[in-house]
Fold these 4 entries.
Entry 1:
Amino acid sequence: MTSVFLEHSATCPLFGAVEKRVAVPGLIRPTLHLLEKKRIDQPVDFRREIHYTYYSYDTSRIVKIHILESNMIKKVGIIGCGQMGSGIAQVAAHADYRVIGNEVSEELFQKGLHRITRLLDRAIEKGKLDSPTREKILGNITGSTDFADLADCDLVIEAATEDMTTKKEIFAELDKICKPEVIFASNTSSLSIGDLASVTGRRDKFVGLHFFNPVPVMRLVEIVRTIDSSDETVAAAREFAESLGKTVVMAKDSPGFIVNVLLIPYLLDSIRQYERGLATRDDIDNAMKLGCGHPMGPLTLADFIGLDTTLFIADIMFDQFRDSHYAAPPLLRRMVNAGYLGKKSGRGFYDYNK
Ligand SMILES: NC(=O)c1ccc[n+]([C@@H]2O[C@H](COP(=O)([O-])OP(=O)(O)OC[C@H]3O[C@@H](n4cnc5c(N)ncnc54)[C@H](O)[C@@H]3O)[C@@H](O)[C@H]2O)c1
């Protein structure tokens, strides 16, 4: 899969009528007058990263063409097709990767696929997507309940439940099955990437690739590098994330990385204040929306993340830091124990069945 990025740069009269063509058969027939910040995906057998500069007769501008070849990564395995796994599968399939989504049961894979289909149909209704692209995305995704199906993947992204034992079991198993060149990545929010990598025999090919919810909308990916991650692995992970249109920030392998170390205490404090009776649910959410310009209040956000996932992350961070900032409020634990997991279960701080 090759991504071709086309973007304007400043006007440059010096280039005059010079036009340079990319000497790759069938690569691009640039319609230079169309060039605005725009991405074109097309399959090309080409194995380097190159930058070309064109002069556009039509716009009298210099045009930079940046060709990124995802040389190594063509087939992506995704473990867990819940909220995050299905979102990652969707964006990877959209960018023309072949995606194989692994779940513990066929039923759960179908549930993830249904989530993707629903989102794509909604995008079509809003005029943001066309039907051929919908078909392409769905055609690029296949399901699996057997790790053996991931043997020839170039990249495997684990997005299973936030639990160290579960994730270590997954990677130990994958390590026996996957080809030697595979890159392993975890989407964990709070667990140590180095600890996860330690159960594999390829710690240099292991990184954190932390996407945000909802994946098709949120532009950030945190790449987490361990002391063992190689430069090549980090570069390939960055190239992959950027080929999905994401912006990358690099984070240390420290619990919560950048975003969650800041976000989780805020969410826990909002639940604590609600539990204490400081204000109503709606007033807490509205206060942060209208007073601080947040797109949604913290109780809604916790529902969207998943109250179980919020609790898992809090417990892991508390265990690591031993700091009361990260101590989960009893209300959160009670809600999770009662099956109130937020939007994904239909009920959390809000009722989504209405
Ligand atoms: N929810 C968020 O906002 C968010 C954001 C960023 C990262 N994350 C991280 O992403 C991961 C997944 O979170 P989620 O919100 O998608 O959770 P989720 O509960 O929606 O999905 C987890 C999925 O993993 C599957 N699973 C569990 N064990 C498995 C196994 N052995 N093999 C295959 N599949 C397995 C489960 O069946 C489930 O469908 C967690 O590590 C979480 O911390 C979550």
Entry 2:
Amino acid sequence: MLESDDLVGLGMAAHQMRLKKNDPRVVTYQIDRNINYTNFCTEYCSFCAFYRPLGAKDGYILSFEEIYKKIDASRKSANSASAKRFSA
Ligand code: SF4
């Protein structure tokens, strides 16, 4: 399985395993968020359109207050999604 490049087949196998191991009427999702506290980077990966070199005018570093706001927004979003699940 780890060496397969059949992504659709892997997804189908995972779905069958989920149905086998869990109540098929229940589906859960993970709400994941990466908070990019800065877009300054020194790696310069060729595929990346996100990074800005140190000192770039459009670069940013978030304050702790901004980071905490994003964390709170993520929590509210997760709670809202949870509430929808249980009210359905
Ligand atoms: S992907 Fe972009 S942000 Fe990430 S290490 Fe590479 S250049 Fe930096």
Entry 3:
Amino acid sequence: MRESTKQLGLRIPRDQYNKLQDYAKANEISMTELIISIFDSFLNSHTPGLCPHCNFQNPPDADYCMRCAWALSERAQETKENLLALLAQNPDIMNELMNRFADTEIKKRDDP
Ligand SMILES: [Zn+2]
């Protein structure tokens, strides 16, 4: 498990990594599956107008981000693919997602 996160270039603070690992164990899933579920929840929690690239809140009907020109509503699938590619190339963004997930999502799921 640690092998695969190492391969992805993840740098997660130890306590957060432990939190993620505990969560994976408690739900009988692998760290890989957990990481995928983090991405899924990130991608699926897309708020209309919220840019998944730079996090700028655009008007809900915006097609492109006003800050970074990222494709929003009209090309959702393409955006998703771009985002996955972006994440694969940017371990820092992935780390940030993992950290946020450790901080907020797990707390939410454990204690709704
Ligand atoms: Zn943007």
Entry 4:
Amino acid sequence: MNKKNGSRNKIILLACLIGIIALLHYATPTEPHYYHKIHIVLRKLYFLPPVMAAAWFGLRGAILTTSAVSLLFIMHALLDWPGNYMEQANQLGELAGFWVAGLIPGWLFDRQRSILQELANANEETLLGLVSALDLREHSTRLHSQRVREYTGLIADRLGVDEKAKREIGFGALLHDVGKIAVPDQILLKPGKLTEPEWDEMRKHSEAGYRIVKKIGFLKDAAEIVYAHHEQLDGSGYPRGLRGEGIPLGARMFMVADVYDALTSERPYRSPMSYEEATAEIKSLSGSHFDPVVVDTFLAIAPEQLQEIARRYPDQDNPNR
Ligand SMILES: [Fe+2]
């Protein structure tokens, strides 16, 4: 269920709840005494929608909901107690209670949301700082990781991945090569081709990254993507030779996004490929390296959307190189 549908369902639920409470309250007479007791208990249920709206939508939602509740309640007070000013004053006190029940939690929930957002931003900035530090070690100012995160996000959207999982997949994409911190400089920065033993050393970065990332509580799922980011659908990848759906979906999405970015980016030994050339290459590896469902989903994304991301996160020349 996406965020928009979730909000719509909550609004419908609130409207139904207010309607049911009002109906029961209006339909229960204030006399005889026995019914009056039920009437008063039902009246207390009006506190529920303002508190629920505060929790779901914050202060603004609480104000709107409490306004609707107040309108219905004032009408009831006028209908049930015509000319009885003492009872109407009593009802007015109840009305003030609804506003307190809506406004205070509404303000508190808004405050809590903004604190959580600040915390999420701080986590994000810390991770970006770590990724920049790794890039600097490789003497690179490339924004490869950020572009790949964005491309992966587009695939995740189209596959209906929920927001929480999408965020974790994004962290996995961002941190995929964090394990390179364990690769010695003479291998990581070697200008020429690597020997086979050097490749063996380089291939350890998936597991090294997994060991680093899994220790961080909110990155547990991201760690699985880091571990599996060099696997291939037919089992020819590393480090575990996982196959098909044994590879986490996040990693299967990342693999396509990663290769697309590698092919369309400038490299010292070749010019960047066009969208058409890169997607033809990806299509040729669908079913062997890549999950065909993910490839088809990726190919359905408008090229302009991908190009806009590439423009937003451009590679720059490193002045210190
Ligand atoms: Fe890697």
